[in-house]
Amino acid sequence: MNFVIAVDSGADLSLSYLESENLYLFPLTFTLNGYEIKDDFGKSYSHKSFYDSLRSGAMPTTSQVNIFTFKEQFTIWAKENIPVLYLAFSSGLSGTYNSACIALKEVQEEYPDAPITIIDTLAASSGVGLLVYHACTLRKQGKDIKEVADYIRATAPYLCHLFTVDDLYHLERGGRVSHASAFVGSLLQIKPVLYVNDEGKLIPYQKARGRKKALHALVDLFGSLVEDTTQPVMISQSDCEEDARLVAKLLQEKYNVEVAMINPIGSVIGSHCGANVIALFFSGKQRVPNK
Fold first, then answer.
1. Phi and psi angles of residue 241, each rounded to the nearest 5 degrees, phi first
2. Is residue 149 located within the same domain as residue 259?
3. pLDDT tens digit string along 202-246?
4. Statement to judge: residues 67 and 167 lie in one domain
């Protein structure tokens, strides 16, 4: 491989994919019951245990990758003149990208020609994961780091993220809905559908009455945004794989789409969205659904 592809926990890929593609991981961390734990795609703490803790009432907090961690690893690569492409979690949702940029600037004071490229994907979860999938595919085809970086920059603005969440109180904690909306919505079994906008921020889009209607709404929105149904599509799920497989089945039946991967939502993103989240990722004619 002629260059390293680096990711962080915001990519929500499987551990097996991380290892098979020889990706470098910068882990974000979460604090649960007084312990700080790496979000390393379930290696240090299983996804099942994490979501069981959430369902029992745990309220974890999260931390971005710090500047020192980035600087230490960037220096290693710079000394060896190793080309690196780091696809970072959206700057609209985390300070991780900004920390990486600060660290690289400091490293380049000593190693001005350090061949390290950082891209703010403005993506989250398997939205980042899908860009990583494209990058790995192109690398295997022999594309160089500049060609891959150019492709990712051109693709990211059209990367659609569609989510539905089961528990409105996690959105309330993150300031996405008011306490009153969370309370009433929970009573009425309202399941919001959300998307990630052009600035990489999570935005409420519509409301569905009940889980089944919310899952069908994701599939319908896919149909309104997609142009190429032969492209790779990914689904993320937070301990609700059966629902993820239902969405994959609906996509196949309605649009003849084959889902490339169904990935677990990791502990950092799961801390902010809760259990039973389904998210759908693909390239569309635009990133933001029409109102």
1. -60, -30
2. no
3. 787 888 888 899 999 999 999 999 999 999 999 999 999 999 999
4. no
Q: What is the pLDDT of residues 77-103, one digit of tens each?
A: 999 999 999 999 999 999 999 999 999
Domains held by the chain: number = 2
The segments of the chain whose pLDDT lies below 50 read 178-185, 187-188
* Residue pair 39/30 in contact by the 8 Å Cβ criterion: yes
Instruction: Assess whether 103 and 21 both reside in one domain.
Output: yes
CATH code of the domain in which 182 resides: 3.30.1180.10
Distance CA 169, CA 1 (A): 44
| C-alpha span between 281 and 222 (Å, rounded) | 9
Structural domain includes residue 288: no
Distance between CA atoms of residues 109 and 74, nearest Å: 12
* Structural domain containing residue 114: 4-156
Q: How many alpha carbons fall within 13 Å on the CB side of residue 279?
A: 33
pTM: 0.93
Contact 181, 166 (CB under 8 A): no
